[in-house]
Design goal:
Order of helices and strands of chain A: EEEEEEEEEEE
Strand content of chain A: over 45%
Oligomer: heterodimer
Order of helices and strands of chain B: EEEEEEEEEEE
Distance between the termini of chain B: 41 Å
Strand content of chain B: over 45%
Largest sheet of chain B: 6 strands, mixed
Number of helices of chain B: 0
Largest interface: A-B, 24 and 22 residues
Number of strands of chain A: 11
Shape of chain B: elongated
Helix content of chain B: under 10%
Number of strands of chain B: 11
Largest sheet of chain A: 7 strands, mixed
């Protein structure tokens, strides 16, 4: 079974630009979550999608958005990039996103904003 | 509000010594707790979850509701245990929706 795949692996952008990150979950998984990982803040929850609907959202500004397609693949978009958006963005999938479910993480997309 | 606290950013022990990584949580509901681990150049992965009451790679964790803790323990540390460890709490955000809240992590180094 293929694992969670995130593309691209690395991105370099400049302030003010926008970026789109992609995540393909494990086959059969319908819940996809996104996290921002930084050395200072650790892992912070961005949002979770299930069956093309956003079910949960973290405390991030509206510049951060996402969507999920019918095949469960998900994208997240960050508009008007700021220097502080530089981070590793992790995607995780699970079967249904239930309370005790194990999350399977991708390798992440390293975003650098210059 | 729910919170997960890992008081130690760094923890260094010698091979063969016992190790305990601390995790405290605050949550008004019934907690579902996990430990995730990230080895160097590898993906973040589940180590164990309290509902399974399992021991993985010699690690155990007991949920103590009175002390609101879920400390991770191993009696004899190995060099390959060196990694970043994250404690996580599954939080109900309404209905059957849950999200995972992570602590900031503890970097464990096991010295030879």
């Amino acid at each position: 079974k293929a694992g969670v795949t995130q593309t691209p692996r690395y991105l370099i952008k400049t302030r003010g630009q926008q970026v789109t990150l992609s995540c393909s979950p494990i086959s059969g998984h319908r819940s996809v979550s996104w996290y921002q990982q930084t050395p200072g803040q650790g892992l912070q929850f961005l949002f979770e999608y299930f069956s093309e609907t956003q079910r949960n959202k973290g405390n991030f500004p509206g510049r951060f958005s996402g969507r999920q397609f019918s095949n469960s693949r998900s994208e997240m978009n960050v508009s008007t990039l700021e220097l502080g958006d530089s981070a590793l963005y992790l995607c995780a999938s699970s079967f249904s996103g239930g309370a005790g479910e194990k999350l399977f993480f991708g390798s992440g997309t390293q975003l650098s904003v210059l | 509000a729910q919170r997960v606290t890992q008081p130690e950013k760094l923890l260094s022990v010698f091979k063969g010594a016992p190790v305990e990584l601390k995790c405290n949580y605050s949550y008004s509901g019934s907690p579902e707790l996990f430990w995730y681990v990230q080895y160097s150049r590898q993906r973040l992965q589940l180590l164990l979850r309290h509902i399974s009451r399992e021991s993985i790679k010699g690690f155990t964790a007991d949920l103590n509701k009175g002390e609101t803790s879920f400390h991770l323990k191993k009696p004899f540390a190995q060099e390959e245990d060196s990694a970043m460890y994250y404690c996580a709490l599954s939080v109900n955000s309404g209905g059957s929706n849950y999200k995972l809240t992570f602590g900031k992590g503890t970097l464990l180094t096991v010295n030879p």
